[in-house]
Design a protein that fits this description.
It is built from 30 helices and 27 strands. The radius of gyration is 28 Å and the shape is globular.
Length: about 800
């Protein structure tokens, strides 16, 4: 496959050769075929995606929009522009490459619609807005290619639903449009090919596999060759991590939550005796702060950057030579994505160091290394498209031009997530946009669409077009609630996601107090100090779920003693003592241990379904125990186990794990807590029922919550089958509670449960039991007390009578 001369000369001037997969992408482009490229980080994926575009524009220069590049991150679009403009300038090509995101100035946005560049870099949300203008047909009628980068990051979620609908519209405007997707970590390549293809026709999409790169060099850091019993962050290893920073040119230290990133940054700063320049980067920082840090990294002024998932994707800093993961990675695909930030070159090994927080996390880190070595990636879970996203898209299409329902339904069905959409459901979506549903149809503000006598659907009033463009988008900001006493004394703030799980009467630790929930308002969580023990552990920040692949590998480690010699001695001793004292679960088996300790009775279930599922299960089981008179006191959970404790002994654990808990306690919990209300707020905003912005002003999160709560209460009472309540239930079940994994666990529990009743705590139970009391601790003597308690637990667990 011959390159046009300017491209061939550009490669030669650098002493480079086009890689096989880059030429394969050029071949597919010239044949007009859609393509999915899966290639490791540093393999030149982005250049491969743009190569057919550059070749075509060199061989047949022209004005007008030729190629759209869609990225999940604004920062990535800016980074790609920087990396693409340089070679274009060096080749002397007269091409315009521009970005269009929420940060783009309004005058440039207006000019781009009239005189677009040849290459436009954007996000799904900005593309959807472009398609809402009447002149979108003129803008996109000559579009030849759309390139979807980091497709794994959003194809299976709501932003992927929106993008698939946008691609369906683009294909209708420009039938010859070619679709391209790029990724480094895709397990289900056929699933992504079907998602990318018009009408889900997998045979239309060529599969291009990138050249293999050098194997990554991954190590597990073990300070003093020991692994802690408890913890989940690796904070104990701050000095050793700082030593790694000192011996490398530039390091990125990944943390799984924003709060942990701040803690690790502070820990490293305390031991930074050489005063090396280090920074922190996460999504809660202001845009200016993130840009400043990114600029410092790009120019080589930082020696280390502590970061979260905000840097998982694509940003290319060639001087990074070491990636350190604090705590377990939670999935092999995520680990590979993060490792790829080191070197960003195909022919050099990426160096990575894992710092496990406890003994289970050591096993998880070892499982992740084995999975990477075996080339095993985490599964990709595709699901039907969300109805709130569809409602937003239908409104965008109406803003662009009146439409005929049957034609739009046909177009929507050509997007894979909506390929099974029934005519009845589509009519319900139209009805919702027409008048909000029969409970809301008396209010003009919900009458956004009108069907005229000619059968076409039109926007009812121009103000609804302005309203849509101001409010369209998929990402809904989380709000914080004030925790306060009825007399007004404020204790602080908690994330609404935590507050949504609570009901009046629940108790939790906050600011060193046991707080009992009295009432949950729009803005406030009203509590009173309680002498009752706090049943629910507090928790801040979102948690990444443990992947099923790594969970299965950890289970196999436990069941296979031939693996144990690979582990540090304290880890293998831990497993050997567990086998002697109790049992180790076989793959597929649910081990449940019960034992007394210091006047309480404990039940520990080793289910390996991840923190989210265990947290939900803890809520449900303690409710069931309450109903059965078992006097529960509380529960704690980690990714590997759930521990419930109370006053009375649990003699029949199987009765607590029956599948009907999802029919009774689950429904009651979701409806009584604010989980469903929280989910409804998100779908109401995405579906366009409630505005976040009016011309000239933006509603606060609290004002949005107040509006959606009022509507929610009306619909729950008068129209429980409303389209958005259905969408909210889908969200609450799938996303907020991990109910899929929970249901699988409960379905298997009866036939796979191994109940072992013991006289005292076991070695396997120690990591989860040490979480009890952790939430109410700040500093000082309380930390010492917890340490003494942990040591006492360990002594009891590891004693052989």
């Amino acid at each position: 496959m011959d390159l046009p001369q300017p491209l061939a000369q550009w490669f030669a001037a650098r002493g480079w050769r086009p890689r096989r997969h880059q030429l394969d992408m050029l071949r597919e482009g010239r044949a007009g075929r859609h393509a999915l490229l899966v290639a490791t980080t540093g393999a030149g994926k982005t250049l491969a995606g743009f190569l057919p575009t550059l070749a075509e524009l060199i061989e047949a220069p022209g004005e007008g929009l030729h190629t759209l590049y869609v990225s999940p991150l604004k920062a990535l679009a800016v980074d790609i522009q920087r990396n693409l403009v340089a070679p274009i300038d060096e080749m002397g090509l007269s091409l315009r490459v521009e970005t269009r995101t929420g940060d783009t100035p309004s005058d440039r946005k207006a000019r781009q619609r009239v005189k677009p560049p040849q290459i436009l870099l954007t996000t799904p949300e900005s593309l959807s807005l472009l398609l809402s203008y009447p002149d979108s047909v003129t803008m996109f009628e000559g579009l030849r290619t759309i390139v979807v980068d980091e497709v794994h990051a959003f194809a299976t979620g709501k932003r992927g639903d929106l993008l698939s609908l946008c691609m369906a519209r683009l294909q209708r405007i420009s039938p010859g449009l070619r679709r391209v997707a790029l990724s480094a970590t895709v397990a289900d390549t056929d699933g992504y090919r079907a998602w990318l293809a018009p009408d889900g026709d997998i045979d239309q999409v060529a599969m291009v596999q990138g050249e293999a790169g050098a194997d990554p060099d991954i190590a597990i850091l073990l300070p003093e060759d020991r692994v802690p019993w408890t913890g989940h962050s690796g904070r104990y290893a701050a000095e050793q991590v700082m030593a790694e920073i000192e011996t490398h040119k530039t390091s990125i230290i990944f943390c799984n939550t924003r709060s942990l990133a701040e803690l690790i940054f502070q820990d490293l700063w305390k031991v930074n005796t050489m005063s090396l320049p280090i920074g922190v980067h996460h999504g809660s920082l202001a845009l200016e702060a993130r840009r400043k840090v990114e600029g410092a990294m790009a120019s080589g002024r930082l020696r280390a950057l502590v970061a979260t998932a905000s840097l998982d994707l694509g940003v290319d800093w060639g001087d990074v030579d070491c990636v350190i993961q604090m705590g377990a990675p939670k999935g092999s695909s995520r680990l590979l994505q993060r490792i790829g930030r080191a070197n960003h070159r195909l022919d050099e090994s990426s160096e990575a160091i894992l710092v496990p927080g406890n003994r289970f996390e050591y096993l998880e880190a070892r499982a992740a290394l084995d999975a990477v070595e075996a080339g095993e990636l985490d599964p990709d879970l595709f699901r039907p498209g969300a109805l709130d996203v569809l409602a937003q898209h239908v409104m965008a299409m109406a803003c662009a031009a009146p439409f005929e329902a049957a034609a739009l339904l046909d177009e929507v069905r050509s997007a894979l997530p909506y390929s099974a959409l029934t005519e009845e459901t589509f009519e319900r979506v139209l009805g919702f946009i027409r008048d909000g549903g029969y409970s809301l149809k008396a209010y003009d503000r919900f009458k956004r669409l009108t069907q005229e006598a000619d059968g076409l659907w039109r926007v009812s009033h121009p103000r609804f077009i302005t309203q849509h463009r101001l409010n369209a988008g998929i990402i809904v900001e989380a709000t914080m609630l004030n925790v306060r006493f009825k007399n007004g004394r404020n204790l602080g703030k908690v994330e609404e996601g935590f507050a949504a799980q609570l009901s009046p009467g629940d108790t939790f630790f906050f600011a060193g107090l046991s707080c009992e929930v009295q009432k949950i308002d729009t803005e406030d969580l009203i509590v009173r100090a309680s002498s009752k023990p706090a049943r629910i552990p507090t928790y801040g920040g979102s948690r990444m779920p443990l992947s099923t692949n790594l969970a299965d590998r950890v289970r196999r480690f436990l069941a296979d003693p031939s693996e144990w010699p690979r582990f540090p001695k304290d880890v293998s001793d831990w497993l050997e003592f567990q086998a002697k004292r109790s049992a180790l679960p076989r793959p597929g088996q649910l081990l449940v241990e019960t034992f007394p300790r210091e006047g309480r009775h404990y039940m520990v279930a080793y289910s390996f379904e991840g923190w989210n599922a265990h947290q939900s299960l803890g809520m449900l089981i303690t409710r069931r125990m309450e109903a059965q008179g078992l006097k529960p006191l509380g529960f704690v959970a980690n990714d590997y186990a759930l521990a419930v404790y109370g006053i009375d002994k649990i003699t029949d654990p199987a009765a607590l794990f029956s599948p009907d808990i999802l029919e009774h306690e689950f429904v009651d919990w979701v409806q009584q807590s604010h989980l469903l209300k929280r989910a409804f707020r998100e779908v109401a905003v995405i579906g366009g029922l409630v505005e976040r912005q009016h011309p000239g002003k933006r509603k606060t999160g609290r004002q949005v919550t107040f509006s959606t709560d009022l509507i929610y209460d009306v619909l729950r009472k008068y129209e429980p089958t409303h389209l958005l309540l259905q969408a909210a239930w889908d969200d609450a079940r799938a996303r907020m509670t991990d109910v899929g994994r929970l249901a699988g666990l409960l379905d298997r529990a009866a036939e796979t449960m191994l109940h072992v009743d013991l006289d005292r705590v076991t070695p396997l139970a120690v990591p989860v039991l040490t979480l009890i009391g952790r939430e109410k601790v700040s500093t000082g003597s309380a930390d010492d007390a917890l340490l003494i308690e942990a040591e006492a637990l360990v002594a009891d667990a590891m004693r052989i009578d």
